[in-house]
Amino acid sequence: MRRRGKKNIMTTGGMDNYMLHDNDFNEVVKVLANKNVVQTKLLLKSLLTNRELSDIARRILIAKMIVKGEGYENILKKIGCSKNTVSLVNKSLMINNGILKQAITNRGGEEQVERYIKNRLKKGK
Questions:
Q1: Alpha helices, H only, the chain
Q2: I need a surface site. Which of 11, 32, 51, 102 has the fewest CB within 10 A?
Q3: Which residues partner with 12 through β-bridges?
Q4: Distance between alpha carbon 55 and the CA centroid of its chain, in Å?
Q5: What's residue 106's pLDDT?
Q6: CA torsion 98→114→76→12, rounded to 10°?
Q7: What pTM was estimated for this model as a whole?
Q8: Packing angle between helix 110-123 and helix 50-68, nearest 10 degrees?
Q9: Where exactly are the structural domains of the chain?
Q10: Distance of alpha carbon 105 from alpha carbon 88, whole angstroms
């Protein structure tokens, strides 16, 4: 196997200057593919920090609220995030053939979203 130089691997170079090569991303997908819910949960907890997991969970929650038709102000009030985060998630719903929107609308119902929001508010943001 040919050794890769620094420019050919996943690296960070400062704020918003992240590189992710297809081969590296494919490895991530292979590790997560075809796992059951428990295995996926354990893998994600092993690979990501609590902050990263929280960011992902919040973005999914925001996406569900947007799809449900809630406005920015309501989302900001319930979740306690920035307008930029809501805008980023809104854009994410439209890219890559709307895969995020498809994923969140095919799993779980709106009652689940409401229950999750209520539980989060009880525990604090």
A1: 22-32, 37-47, 50-68, 72-79, 83-92, 99-105, 110-123
A2: 51
A3: 18
A4: 7
A5: 77
A6: -50
A7: 0.68
A8: 130
A9: 1-47, 49-125
A10: 18
